[in-house]
Amino acid sequence: MLDLKKEIVNPQAIRLSVAPMMDWTDSHCRVFHRALAPHARLYTEMVHANAVIHGDRARLLAMDPVEHPVALQLGGSEPALLAQAARIGAERGFDEINLNCGCPSDRVQAGRFGACLMREPALVAASVAAMIEACDVPVTVKCRLGVDDDHRFEVFLAFVDEVAAAGCTMFVVHARNAWLKGLSPKENREVPPLRYDWAYRLKRERPQLKILVNGGIATAEEATSHLEHADGSMLGRAAYHEPYVLHRIDTAWFGGELRSRAELLRSLRPYVEAELARGVFLKHITRHMLGLFHGERGGRAFRQVLSEGAHKPGADWSLIEQALAVTESFAARDAA
Ligand SMILES: Cc1cc2nc3c(=O)[nH]c(=O)nc-3n(C[C@H](O)[C@H](O)[C@H](O)COP(=O)(O)O)c2cc1C
Protein backbone atom coordinates (compact mmCIF):
# COMPACT_ATOMS: atom_id res chain seq x y z
CA MET A 1 0.00 0.00 0.00
CA LEU A 2 1.17 3.52 -0.72
CA ASP A 3 2.50 5.08 2.46
CA LEU A 4 1.81 8.79 2.05
CA LYS A 5 4.36 9.77 4.64
CA LYS A 6 7.11 7.99 2.72
CA GLU A 7 6.17 9.12 -0.79
CA ILE A 8 6.39 12.54 -2.34
CA VAL A 9 2.91 12.68 -3.79
CA ASN A 10 2.60 16.34 -4.66
CA PRO A 11 4.28 16.99 -8.03
CA GLN A 12 4.60 20.71 -7.23
CA ALA A 13 6.82 19.85 -4.29
CA ILE A 14 9.62 18.57 -6.48
CA ARG A 15 9.50 20.78 -9.55
CA LEU A 16 12.16 23.19 -8.33
CA SER A 17 15.00 22.36 -5.99
CA VAL A 18 18.33 23.72 -4.88
CA ALA A 19 21.18 21.22 -4.86
CA PRO A 20 23.09 20.04 -1.81
CA MET A 21 26.42 21.88 -1.78
CA MET A 22 29.12 21.35 0.85
CA ASP A 23 30.25 24.54 2.58
CA TRP A 24 27.52 26.45 0.78
CA THR A 25 23.98 25.26 1.53
CA ASP A 26 24.07 25.71 5.28
CA SER A 27 21.03 26.89 7.18
CA HIS A 28 21.70 30.63 6.56
CA CYS A 29 21.96 29.96 2.85
CA ARG A 30 18.76 27.94 2.82
CA VAL A 31 16.83 30.63 4.69
CA PHE A 32 18.01 33.12 2.05
CA HIS A 33 16.98 30.80 -0.79
CA ARG A 34 13.63 30.23 0.86
CA ALA A 35 12.94 33.98 0.81
CA LEU A 36 13.64 34.00 -2.94
CA ALA A 37 11.83 30.79 -3.80
CA PRO A 38 8.93 29.97 -1.48
CA HIS A 39 8.14 26.74 -3.40
CA ALA A 40 11.61 25.29 -3.85
CA ARG A 41 12.76 22.12 -2.19
CA LEU A 42 16.02 22.79 -0.39
CA TYR A 43 18.83 20.37 0.36
CA THR A 44 21.43 20.48 3.12
CA GLU A 45 25.11 19.98 2.56
CA MET A 46 26.06 16.32 2.69
CA VAL A 47 26.54 15.14 6.26
CA HIS A 48 28.16 11.77 6.88
CA ALA A 49 26.00 9.30 8.80
CA ASN A 50 28.73 8.93 11.42
CA ALA A 51 28.77 12.67 12.01
CA VAL A 52 25.00 12.70 12.46
CA ILE A 53 25.27 9.92 15.02
CA HIS A 54 28.37 11.02 16.92
CA GLY A 55 28.90 14.67 16.00
CA ASP A 56 27.59 18.03 17.08
CA ARG A 57 23.99 17.68 15.92
CA ALA A 58 22.97 21.17 16.93
CA ARG A 59 25.46 22.52 14.41
CA LEU A 60 25.38 19.82 11.72
CA LEU A 61 21.61 19.55 11.58
CA ALA A 62 20.78 23.20 12.25
CA MET A 63 17.57 24.09 10.45
CA ASP A 64 15.16 27.02 10.67
CA PRO A 65 11.43 26.25 10.43
CA VAL A 66 11.07 28.55 7.39
CA GLU A 67 13.25 26.16 5.40
CA HIS A 68 10.53 23.54 4.88
CA PRO A 69 10.37 21.62 2.65
CA VAL A 70 13.99 20.72 3.28
CA ALA A 71 15.89 17.48 2.71
CA LEU A 72 18.85 16.20 4.68
CA GLN A 73 21.51 14.69 2.47
CA LEU A 74 23.47 11.84 4.02
CA GLY A 75 26.76 10.29 3.01
CA GLY A 76 27.76 6.79 3.97
CA SER A 77 27.48 3.18 2.91
CA GLU A 78 26.69 1.19 6.02
CA PRO A 79 23.00 0.41 6.07
CA ALA A 80 22.68 0.29 9.86
CA LEU A 81 24.45 3.63 10.33
CA LEU A 82 22.52 5.27 7.51
CA ALA A 83 19.28 4.00 9.02
CA GLN A 84 20.16 5.47 12.40
CA ALA A 85 21.16 8.80 10.83
CA ALA A 86 17.98 8.87 8.73
CA ARG A 87 15.88 8.32 11.83
CA ILE A 88 17.64 11.15 13.64
CA GLY A 89 17.21 13.45 10.63
CA ALA A 90 13.51 12.71 10.32
CA GLU A 91 13.00 13.18 14.05
CA ARG A 92 14.62 16.59 13.81
CA GLY A 93 12.03 17.54 11.20
CA PHE A 94 13.69 17.07 7.83
CA ASP A 95 11.09 16.35 5.15
CA GLU A 96 13.18 13.95 3.09
CA ILE A 97 16.39 11.99 3.52
CA ASN A 98 18.61 11.86 0.44
CA LEU A 99 21.51 9.50 -0.05
CA ASN A 100 24.57 10.83 -1.87
CA CYS A 101 25.67 8.50 -4.67
CA GLY A 102 27.28 11.21 -6.78
CA CYS A 103 30.16 12.85 -4.98
CA PRO A 104 33.55 11.94 -6.53
CA SER A 105 36.11 13.35 -4.06
CA ASP A 106 39.07 11.20 -2.93
CA ARG A 107 37.98 11.42 0.68
CA VAL A 108 34.61 10.07 -0.29
CA GLN A 109 36.13 7.28 -2.38
CA ALA A 110 38.38 6.23 0.49
CA GLY A 111 35.28 5.92 2.64
CA ARG A 112 33.49 3.95 -0.09
CA PHE A 113 30.55 6.27 -0.47
CA GLY A 114 29.42 8.98 -2.88
CA ALA A 115 29.77 8.24 -6.61
CA CYS A 116 31.61 4.95 -6.17
CA LEU A 117 28.33 3.57 -4.81
CA MET A 118 27.03 3.57 -8.38
CA ARG A 119 29.13 0.43 -8.75
CA GLU A 120 27.44 -1.16 -5.74
CA PRO A 121 23.72 -1.14 -6.38
CA ALA A 122 23.10 -3.98 -3.92
CA LEU A 123 24.70 -2.00 -1.10
CA VAL A 124 22.73 1.12 -2.03
CA ALA A 125 19.54 -0.92 -2.16
CA ALA A 126 20.26 -2.39 1.28
CA SER A 127 21.01 1.09 2.63
CA VAL A 128 17.84 2.56 1.18
CA ALA A 129 15.73 -0.31 2.51
CA ALA A 130 17.16 0.17 5.99
CA MET A 131 16.62 3.93 5.87
CA ILE A 132 13.02 3.53 4.70
CA GLU A 133 12.39 1.10 7.51
CA ALA A 134 13.89 3.50 10.05
CA CYS A 135 12.08 6.72 9.25
CA ASP A 136 8.73 8.10 8.22
CA VAL A 137 9.77 10.49 5.46
CA PRO A 138 10.67 9.81 1.80
CA VAL A 139 14.14 8.40 1.17
CA THR A 140 15.62 9.50 -2.15
CA VAL A 141 18.90 9.06 -4.03
CA LYS A 142 21.11 11.56 -5.85
CA CYS A 143 23.33 9.88 -8.42
CA ARG A 144 25.34 10.29 -11.59
CA LEU A 145 24.87 8.42 -14.88
CA GLY A 146 27.80 6.13 -14.22
CA VAL A 147 31.44 6.14 -13.26
CA ASP A 148 34.62 6.55 -15.29
CA ASP A 149 34.25 5.47 -18.92
CA ASP A 150 31.29 3.20 -18.39
CA HIS A 151 28.64 4.69 -20.66
CA ARG A 152 26.10 1.88 -20.76
CA PHE A 153 22.55 3.04 -20.21
CA GLU A 154 21.56 -0.47 -19.18
CA VAL A 155 24.05 -0.35 -16.28
CA PHE A 156 22.55 2.95 -15.12
CA LEU A 157 19.05 1.55 -15.46
CA ALA A 158 20.00 -1.60 -13.56
CA PHE A 159 21.33 0.58 -10.71
CA VAL A 160 18.08 2.55 -10.58
CA ASP A 161 15.95 -0.59 -10.82
CA GLU A 162 17.73 -2.32 -7.97
CA VAL A 163 17.48 0.74 -5.72
CA ALA A 164 13.86 1.36 -6.72
CA ALA A 165 13.02 -2.25 -5.87
CA ALA A 166 14.22 -1.46 -2.34
CA GLY A 167 11.59 1.30 -2.13
CA CYS A 168 13.23 4.47 -3.47
CA THR A 169 10.76 6.34 -5.69
CA MET A 170 12.71 9.50 -6.45
CA PHE A 171 16.10 9.93 -8.08
CA VAL A 172 17.99 13.17 -8.59
CA VAL A 173 20.14 12.59 -11.66
CA HIS A 174 23.26 14.71 -12.02
CA ALA A 175 23.31 14.00 -15.72
CA ARG A 176 26.98 13.21 -16.32
CA ASN A 177 29.41 10.48 -15.33
CA ALA A 178 31.75 10.82 -12.39
CA TRP A 179 35.35 10.19 -13.29
CA LEU A 180 36.89 8.73 -10.19
CA LYS A 181 40.46 8.90 -11.43
CA GLY A 182 42.30 11.97 -12.56
CA LEU A 183 39.67 14.68 -12.08
CA SER A 184 39.14 16.95 -9.09
CA PRO A 185 35.60 17.29 -7.71
CA LYS A 186 35.38 20.68 -9.40
CA GLU A 187 36.44 19.24 -12.77
CA ASN A 188 33.97 16.45 -12.20
CA ARG A 189 31.20 19.06 -12.28
CA GLU A 190 32.42 20.44 -15.60
CA VAL A 191 34.40 17.99 -17.70
CA PRO A 192 32.30 14.83 -18.13
CA PRO A 193 29.73 15.77 -20.76
CA LEU A 194 26.12 16.36 -19.75
CA ARG A 195 23.62 13.86 -21.13
CA TYR A 196 20.15 15.04 -20.21
CA ASP A 197 18.73 12.52 -22.69
CA TRP A 198 19.62 9.71 -20.24
CA ALA A 199 17.56 11.31 -17.47
CA TYR A 200 14.69 11.81 -19.90
CA ARG A 201 14.93 8.22 -21.12
CA LEU A 202 14.93 7.00 -17.52
CA LYS A 203 11.68 8.92 -16.96
CA ARG A 204 10.18 7.46 -20.15
CA GLU A 205 11.16 3.91 -19.30
CA ARG A 206 10.26 4.16 -15.60
CA PRO A 207 7.37 6.65 -15.55
CA GLN A 208 6.33 5.57 -12.07
CA LEU A 209 9.57 7.02 -10.64
CA LYS A 210 10.05 10.72 -9.88
CA ILE A 211 13.11 11.96 -11.77
CA LEU A 212 14.79 15.31 -11.12
CA VAL A 213 17.33 16.62 -13.61
CA ASN A 214 20.49 18.27 -12.31
CA GLY A 215 23.66 19.64 -13.87
CA GLY A 216 24.43 22.85 -15.74
CA ILE A 217 20.99 24.44 -15.44
CA ALA A 218 21.63 28.18 -15.50
CA THR A 219 18.46 30.00 -16.54
CA ALA A 220 14.72 29.93 -15.95
CA GLU A 221 14.23 28.87 -19.59
CA GLU A 222 16.57 25.89 -19.21
CA ALA A 223 14.92 24.87 -15.95
CA THR A 224 11.52 25.05 -17.64
CA SER A 225 12.60 22.98 -20.62
CA HIS A 226 13.45 19.98 -18.41
CA LEU A 227 9.90 19.85 -17.10
CA GLU A 228 8.76 18.60 -20.50
CA HIS A 229 10.72 15.41 -19.91
CA ALA A 230 11.12 14.96 -16.17
CA ASP A 231 9.51 15.85 -12.85
CA GLY A 232 11.80 18.60 -11.71
CA SER A 233 14.88 20.74 -12.17
CA MET A 234 17.58 21.03 -9.52
CA LEU A 235 19.92 24.02 -9.65
CA GLY A 236 23.26 24.13 -7.87
CA ARG A 237 25.91 26.65 -8.80
CA ALA A 238 23.58 29.00 -10.66
CA ALA A 239 21.31 29.18 -7.62
CA TYR A 240 24.28 30.05 -5.47
CA HIS A 241 26.08 32.51 -7.72
CA GLU A 242 22.99 34.19 -9.20
CA PRO A 243 20.27 33.51 -6.65
CA TYR A 244 17.72 35.84 -8.22
CA VAL A 245 17.18 33.14 -10.86
CA LEU A 246 15.40 31.16 -8.15
CA HIS A 247 12.94 33.99 -7.67
CA ARG A 248 12.33 34.27 -11.41
CA ILE A 249 11.63 30.55 -11.67
CA ASP A 250 9.46 30.41 -8.57
CA THR A 251 7.21 33.26 -9.70
CA ALA A 252 7.05 31.97 -13.29
CA TRP A 253 6.03 28.46 -12.24
CA PHE A 254 4.01 29.02 -9.10
CA GLY A 255 2.65 32.54 -9.52
CA GLY A 256 3.10 35.52 -7.28
CA GLU A 257 4.55 38.91 -7.94
CA LEU A 258 8.12 39.36 -9.05
CA ARG A 259 9.68 41.27 -6.15
CA SER A 260 12.81 43.36 -6.39
CA ARG A 261 16.12 42.10 -5.08
CA ALA A 262 16.17 44.83 -2.44
CA GLU A 263 12.66 43.99 -1.23
CA LEU A 264 13.51 40.30 -0.94
CA LEU A 265 16.65 41.05 0.96
CA ARG A 266 14.89 43.45 3.34
CA SER A 267 12.33 40.75 4.11
CA LEU A 268 15.19 38.94 5.85
CA ARG A 269 15.91 41.72 8.30
CA PRO A 270 14.11 40.06 11.27
CA TYR A 271 16.02 36.83 10.61
CA VAL A 272 19.39 38.55 10.31
CA GLU A 273 18.84 40.61 13.46
CA ALA A 274 17.70 37.59 15.46
CA GLU A 275 20.79 35.65 14.35
CA LEU A 276 23.09 38.54 15.22
CA ALA A 277 21.45 38.73 18.64
CA ARG A 278 22.31 35.03 19.09
CA GLY A 279 25.95 35.84 18.47
CA VAL A 280 26.19 34.82 14.80
CA PHE A 281 28.63 36.95 12.78
CA LEU A 282 27.12 38.86 9.88
CA LYS A 283 29.71 37.46 7.45
CA HIS A 284 28.35 33.94 7.93
CA ILE A 285 24.98 35.10 6.61
CA THR A 286 26.00 37.63 3.96
CA ARG A 287 28.57 35.38 2.28
CA HIS A 288 25.66 33.57 0.63
CA MET A 289 24.10 36.80 -0.62
CA LEU A 290 26.99 38.24 -2.59
CA GLY A 291 25.58 37.21 -5.96
CA LEU A 292 22.14 38.72 -5.44
CA PHE A 293 22.81 41.62 -7.80
CA HIS A 294 24.91 39.55 -10.22
CA GLY A 295 24.78 41.06 -13.69
CA GLU A 296 23.06 44.22 -12.43
CA ARG A 297 24.51 47.72 -12.38
CA GLY A 298 26.03 48.15 -8.93
CA GLY A 299 26.28 44.40 -8.45
CA ARG A 300 30.01 44.50 -7.99
CA ALA A 301 29.80 47.37 -5.50
CA PHE A 302 27.11 45.50 -3.54
CA ARG A 303 29.38 42.49 -3.28
CA GLN A 304 32.34 44.66 -2.31
CA VAL A 305 30.54 46.54 0.48
CA LEU A 306 29.38 43.26 1.99
CA SER A 307 32.62 41.36 1.64
CA GLU A 308 34.75 44.18 2.98
CA GLY A 309 32.50 45.10 5.88
CA ALA A 310 30.83 41.92 7.08
CA HIS A 311 33.85 40.51 8.92
CA LYS A 312 34.42 43.68 10.95
CA PRO A 313 33.51 43.56 14.64
CA GLY A 314 30.02 44.83 15.28
CA ALA A 315 28.94 44.54 11.63
CA ASP A 316 25.15 44.58 11.62
CA TRP A 317 22.07 45.13 9.45
CA SER A 318 23.17 48.66 8.61
CA LEU A 319 25.91 47.20 6.40
CA ILE A 320 23.27 45.50 4.27
CA GLU A 321 21.42 48.81 3.98
CA GLN A 322 24.69 50.42 2.95
CA ALA A 323 25.23 47.80 0.24
CA LEU A 324 21.66 48.29 -0.98
CA ALA A 325 22.10 52.07 -1.00
CA VAL A 326 25.03 51.65 -3.38
CA THR A 327 22.96 49.65 -5.86
CA GLU A 328 20.11 52.13 -5.50
CA SER A 329 22.45 55.02 -6.28
CA PHE A 330 23.45 53.30 -9.55
CA ALA A 331 19.77 52.87 -10.41
CA ALA A 332 19.05 56.53 -9.61
CA ARG A 333 21.98 57.65 -11.77
CA ASP A 334 20.75 55.50 -14.65
CA ALA A 335 17.24 56.91 -14.37
CA ALA A 336 18.49 60.54 -14.33
C1 LIG B 1 30.61 23.76 -3.76
C2 LIG B 1 29.83 22.53 -4.14
C3 LIG B 1 29.59 21.56 -3.19
C4 LIG B 1 28.85 20.42 -3.52
N1 LIG B 1 28.54 19.52 -2.55
C5 LIG B 1 27.69 18.48 -2.82
C6 LIG B 1 27.19 17.65 -1.79
O1 LIG B 1 27.46 17.84 -0.60
N2 LIG B 1 26.37 16.63 -2.16
C7 LIG B 1 26.01 16.41 -3.46
O2 LIG B 1 25.25 15.48 -3.75
N3 LIG B 1 26.46 17.19 -4.44
C8 LIG B 1 27.27 18.23 -4.15
N4 LIG B 1 27.65 19.09 -5.15
C9 LIG B 1 27.15 18.85 -6.51
C10 LIG B 1 25.84 19.62 -6.73
O3 LIG B 1 24.83 19.15 -5.86
C11 LIG B 1 25.36 19.46 -8.19
O4 LIG B 1 25.08 18.09 -8.42
C12 LIG B 1 26.40 19.92 -9.19
O5 LIG B 1 26.98 21.15 -8.82
C13 LIG B 1 25.78 20.06 -10.60
O6 LIG B 1 24.72 20.98 -10.59
P1 LIG B 1 24.91 22.51 -11.10
O7 LIG B 1 25.55 22.43 -12.46
O8 LIG B 1 23.53 23.10 -11.12
O9 LIG B 1 25.83 23.18 -10.12
C14 LIG B 1 28.39 20.23 -4.85
C15 LIG B 1 28.64 21.21 -5.79
C16 LIG B 1 29.35 22.36 -5.46
C17 LIG B 1 29.58 23.42 -6.50
Automatic annotation (TrEMBL):
Query: What SUPFAM superfamilies does this protein map onto?
Result: FMN-linked oxidoreductases
Give residue ranges for domain DUS-like FMN-binding.
18-315
| Keywords per UniProt | Flavoprotein, FMN, NADP, Oxidoreductase, RNA-binding, tRNA processing, tRNA-binding
Q: What class of enzyme is it?
A: oxidoreductase
Q: Do you know which Pfam families this protein is assigned to?
A: Dus
Q: Which domain of life is it from?
A: Bacteria
* Cofactor(s) it depends on: FMN
Q: What PROSITE patterns does UniProt report for this protein, alphabetically?
A: UPF0034 (PS01136)
In this chain, the site described as Interacts with tRNA is at N100, K186, R189, R300, R303
The family assignment reads: Belongs to the Dus family. DusA subfamily.
What PANTHER family does the entry give?
FMN-LINKED OXIDOREDUCTASES SUPERFAMILY PROTEIN
Q: Would you tell me the protein name for this molecule?
A: tRNA-dihydrouridine(20/20a) synthase
> What organism is this sequence from?
Lysobacter antibioticus
